[in-house]
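ugh ok fine here u go
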Amino acid sequence: MNHQDTQDTHDDRRTDTTIRILLADDHALVRRGVRLILDREPDLEVVAEAGDGAEAIAMARTHDVDLAVLDIAMPRLTGLQAARELTALRPGLRILMLTMHDNEQYLFQALKAGAGGYVLKSVADRDLVAACRAAMRDEPFLYPGAVTALIRNYLDRVRHGEEAPEQLLTPREEEVLKLVAEGHSSKEIAELLFISVKTVQRHRENLLHKLGLRDRLELTRYAIRAGLVEP
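structure:
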């Protein structure tokens, strides 16, 4: 009886301090592996899973979560796009980016999107738990190579007197570009974004004009270079 009382007290304490996590990755096997890493910790619990960025946003609306762990490369909405939406939707939600890409461009975009940490999948078993706890303390978590990249980028800009370029596309244009590059029709894009077909076509025309491109193929190549879709 005493043992049971002790166990109940321990379970109550765990529940009070549990960090509730939303996990988004388009590969079910990756999600399973990441979930195993997180759920074996007494203070971490995956309470919602998503297969793409749009689903992650929907899950954040319906689940009480403290932390979102987002893969960067996902269909419909990337983790970067989802992070921007989630930051606006739930200002108190902490966000970590999980990626296989040791890529400076992704790193800088992730930080701009509101992510508090950037974890490589290759060392997730070593870094992810610490990154989750750091995020909840509002402390940034970057792997050593990312810190080096940030310092080098800053020093290069100082040396050359360069300013960070302004974002060329609006968030909505970026959403349309990604869906065009993924092969969706104007009608499908309109349904996914809850806008009219006419508005989608106007965005496509604006994209071609802004980027100096001619057709869907060139838009797709640009989207790959910008990291919106995988090659």
